[in-house]
């Protein structure tokens, strides 16, 4: 008999492919120049540049069909540093667990 830890049976692995891009609903400030196209850039109440979010709450650069970033190579620094499986990631997944596929 194979010994599989119980957690592997009962808890799905944390992976972006089982997540509805929860973190792409967060406000993303543009603090460095990475080449984000102008059409995806908005200005916040304090005059800072942020990623534009559409009425559904997700970042304008997110492909709504694939739930993947359409500007991955040019995505902001904050998106690059957001780590899958980290506390923030787990919090976001928990927050909208009902929309998981
Ligand atoms: S919240 Fe975590 S699992 Fe979901 S898309 Fe973001 S990094 Fe991936
Ligand atoms: S730029 Fe890409 S990774 Fe960053 S929030 Fe938008 S869709 Fe998500």
**How would a crystallographer describe the biggest sheet?**
2 strands, antiparallel
C-alpha Rg, in Å? Answer: 16 Å
Into which percent range does the helicity of residues fall?
10-25%
Name the ligand types: iron/sulfur cluster
Strand order of the largest sheet: 1-2
- Round the mean pLDDT to the nearest integer and report it: 88
Overview of this structure, please?
Pfam families: CxxCxxCC (PF03692). This is Fe-S-oxidoreductase. The model has no long low-confidence stretch (mean pLDDT 88). It is globular, with a radius of gyration of 16 Å. It has one domain. With 101 residues, it is of the alpha+beta class. The strands form two sheets. A two-stranded antiparallel ribbon has the order 1-2. Strands 3-4 form a two-stranded antiparallel ribbon. The chain is built from three helices and four strands. 19% of the residues lie in helices and 10% in strands. It has helices at residues 6-10, 77-81, 87-95, and strands at 41-43, 49-51, 62-63, 68-69. Bound molecules: iron/sulfur cluster (2 copies). The site of one iron/sulfur cluster has 11 residues, from helix 3. Residues 24, 28, 51, 59, 61-62, 69, 71, 75-76, 79 line the site of one iron/sulfur cluster.
Describe the structure concisely for a colleague.
With 101 residues, the protein is an alpha+beta fold.
């Amino acid at each position: 008999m194979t010994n599989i830890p119980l957690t592997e049976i009962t808890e799905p692995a944390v992976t972006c492919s089982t997540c509805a891009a929860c973190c792409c609903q967060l406000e993303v400030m543009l603090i460095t120049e990475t080449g984000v196209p102008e059409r995806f850039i908005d200005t916040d109440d304090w005059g800072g540049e942020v990623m534009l979010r559409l009425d559904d709450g997700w970042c304008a650069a997110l492909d709504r069909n694939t739930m993947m970033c359409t500007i991955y190579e040019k995505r902001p620094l904050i998106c690059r540093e957001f780590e899958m499986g980290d506390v923030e990631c787990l919090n976001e997944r928990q927050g909208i667990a009902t929309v998981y596929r």
